[in-house]
Amino acid sequence: MPAKPALEPKHQHLASQPQSPVRRLLRGFAFDPSLATKLETALVSEITYKVSWEPGLQPGPVGEYVEVVDYDPPSQCFYAPVNLNDAHVLAQNGLQPSEGNPQFHQQMTYAVAMTTIDRFERALGRKAFWADRLEIAPGERAESRFISRLRIYPHAMRMPNAYYSRNKGALLFGYFPATDDRSSGQFPGGMVFTCLSHDVIAHETTHALLDGFHEHFMEATNPDVLAFHEAFADIVALFQHFTFPEVLKHQIARTRGDLRSENLLAQLAAQVGLARGTHGALRDAIGRFDSEKGKWVRHTPDATALDHLTQVHARGAILVAAVFDAFLSIYQDRSRDLLRLASGGTGVLAQGELHPDLVNRLAQEAAKAAGHVLNMCIRALDYCPPVDLTFGEYLRALVTADMDLMQEDEHHYRVAFIEAFRRRGIYPRDVRTLSEDSLRWARPGEAPEEAPGESVRMLAHFIKSIGLREQVDRLRYLSTREQIWQETRLIRAKLHQAIQGQVAKAELLQRLTGLALAEFQAPPNVSVRRDGQPVFTVQALREARRLGADGRILNQVFITLLQKERVVHDGNEYVIRSGSTIVLDLETQKVSYVIGKGLNDQKRILRTIAFREGAESDRSLAATYFEGTNEPFAALHNSGA
Amino acid sequence: MPPATKTAAKKMAGTGFPAAPVVAPGSPAKYRVRVRMYRHGLGDCFLLTFPREGKEPLQMLIDCGVLGRDKSFMTGMVEHIHKTVAPKGGKARLDVVAATHEHKDHLSGFNQARALFNSKFDFGAVWLGWTENLTKQEVQKIKEARKKAVATLRAVLDMPAIGPALDGVEDLLGFSEDDDTTGSGTVAEALEYLKMRGKEAGDLQYLEPGQGPLELDGVEGVRVYVLGPPLDPILLKGSEVTEKMKRDGVIYHLGATGDAGMDGLAAAAGCGVAGDGERFFPFSPEHRISRQSPYLANMAAFLGATYDDPAQGWRQIENDWLKAFGQLALDLDSDTNNTSLVLAFEFVKTGEVLLFVGDAQVGNWRSWADVKFDVPGRAQPLPAHDLLNRTVFYKVGHHGSHNATLKAGGLELMNRPGLVAFIPLDRATAKAQGKKDANGVQKGWDMPAEALYHALVEKAGERVVLSDVGETPGAKAQAVGVRATAAYVDYFLV
Predict the structure, then answer these.
(1) Chain A contacts of B324, Cβ < 8 Å?
(2) Is the ipTM of this complex over 0.90?
(3) Which residues of B touch A614 (CB under 8 A)?
(4) Is pTM beyond 0.95 here?
(5) What pairing do the DSSP bridges indicate for beta strands A283-284 and B353-356?
(6) What is the model's pLDDT at position B181?
């Protein structure tokens, strides 16, 4: 008998292996299912999401970053996990959009969440991480654990609500019957799924990303902190609209290139908003439906609005409007020449529809500007203080991050931002003017009593002695997020040791950061270990290598230090968190910025205390009866998604 | 009859209402008004006495209710009221009886001591908020929605698989639920009784904010102003009502859950209308794979690595959806609180004002900014905020919870020196409520809320008085006319 050919070939024939794809194409709703039932928008209601190809994607989908687990507790059932690697599914770019098919819902949440994560990683130039899980075994010290995958529950509850839960490392999406009010234009009682809304998914995913980035941005220490969380999530969801070319062109054609008029791109969660019984999208960056006038009206910027608005969403909406306004100015600036070309030099377009070529070019400019604006917004996170962020400080972070990367502000992006923020009364404290230069975070200076050059020398020596370059280099060649996470933890521990071990440098850092770092120098309110060392943590270490406009590579490390302090005020004890983000340039081995909220800032501490006391009276009724809630976003999103 | 609830178990130990003289030792002989706050537990009961020239004083009762007290205790208290009003025996005349809103802790006494009210009291007039006027269609709708919410919550709480997971909701329902274990009957019944007595007396009034100042019969120089419950969503007609309601963040509307939403939740809890559950499932039956389904095996590996992985048990979401019921209970409570009748008594000559807010919450307080009164002899209408400005006595809303006293546009306006604040609150009762901690001990309701209490003390210093029996009013409170016995605390405006 002839020998059987081996079933498993011993050697792979490389030349005939197909290349692994870069993208996985998945069909989905552009915004939400409501567009499909309107003639005007039906054509653009579906788009194809281009999601990065994950080699080991399992049914669920369960990938590297997210796992979709479709359990529906109110209905007491599971829905079978979709297998996106099924040949039939692959061959038709994913399942066809359908409200009645749970597997499509899973695909949609996966596609949008991955798109959002991808956007985030591309802007930052490094991997994204979810918030660590703090595990406290009885009798032991709390231990942080790496969380690889954010869990997504597409049908978690019967409520018009969706939220990010840090406690469960999960996104929970609800579904609900639409309002019975026929005037909303919705099918009364029809089922509405929050997990089919691009905006809701992107918004919640961004909450999770931001929480993994700055874990103390969920602590309300001033009226802006939580508002920023909401605003940032909205900003990411909004600007992702501009990455849908079909919709973008459709809307540019419809508005004749004027994105300041009512358009879908500036609206968030239209279906959810209508189904809950409001007359329009849940939020709109440029206008709102005025029920007295019975029509949509544009917002007028009010420089005093922030003084009296305390509700988190209302405050956040102002930041969103400011960023969107900056984008509109940039888009206008970038498209002015096109309009002149298309109008014989007048810049005033003739009546009627726009030429498709012009629509294409305008859409390109809008997409480009939106991409840049979103990148700026995400990168600014690296330059934020780790606690107690205000809108004004976010503006400073935006300006500084952009100035580091793009020294020439060719298209006046920064001016557009500063103007838009100024018109809404968003100012940083303690800057002398609103010019770019004053807004940029201050570079660390010398103390008058030091010898000239002393601090620069000491800092450079410090960076060298801890071998920061070598450490960060190692990070860059690690392949999995878990390895990076582990390695970062080791570096953080080494840094902590190095700071405490070198008293002279600790003293210098102490001066720069306003934290208590050196032995026997902690103020009485800061806990001190038995050996006299004040307690502080090296909370995070992040690296970034970015290419500037002039071809220069920016090679940076961001280190955040945190410290707690117990302050007694009027007989009540408060725990105040202080912290600093130190920006280091690895090329020159210099400290570029120290962005801090120091212990020594008495005014800030008093403001925080006053805010906490005041916030009491604005808490929800749940605080009285249920002793608060451990799901901050659940309550917040219930009142305004 | 609804089944016995654990609220019953929380009844105070069987002590009777404390004995006390009808006139507190050290009371002034002459005064313009005496405000008596009974110390009967977590609930409101206020007796206002206005002396009249050549006549018996005018007696006004504002609320008479409590949580967790029994019939005999409350009868004891009402007997004390009787002795106070009619010291020589015979029938006691309550010239005005006002009920602020439909909650047990404000009305239960009218059921528990019904026999006494029937046999030994005459009513002169009954005042209720316009939101109790069932001849209005909008009011009926509101009440029906509320009734449905209560019934849904009750049904869900009684589901053995779910009820125990609904930590804290049971107690919250205690405000509005019909509960027979304390002899308090239904809250609606207490209201009906008051309406009946009002009709019998020929003077039943449903009051609206901004209504011209009312006079108290024979009491010179005192005007009564109605500040709430707010009117605005109902002023508009037809479909505009819903639009305006939506735009304004919905004061009289049960939260975001909606009618169909409520049915869907009930169906999920297994206690919806029979045969109605199917339409609230998000997908058709063939998609649903229950734990018992033969198809579950197909996804065993997936579940083993995710939802059923014991190491990831902390990520399960079995009970998270039940938060919807907690929200519903909160909406129910705050909606009813917001229908509180709010009264301000003005002493015209001196400008001093006594303010009784019931349990009005933020929405109610905010609406006063636009309330104005046409006062005889005044060229300009009198803004309600002007009354707040001149307040010398404030009955703190909702037992001192944080969102029943507005800071800006509320407490901050009360700038009279010598301001007195009375908080009807029994801390022991408030503590025995709410969610349970890891040891099964209830964490208590946040009453009084610390921040609010601080703010009150900042304004009124030692003149903040709790009805709690353990509390003795300080010297400064005594100096401005506060006297206390074991059964009540009096405030005298001399």
Answers:
(1) 157-159
(2) no
(3) 407, 451
(4) no
(5) unpaired
(6) 57
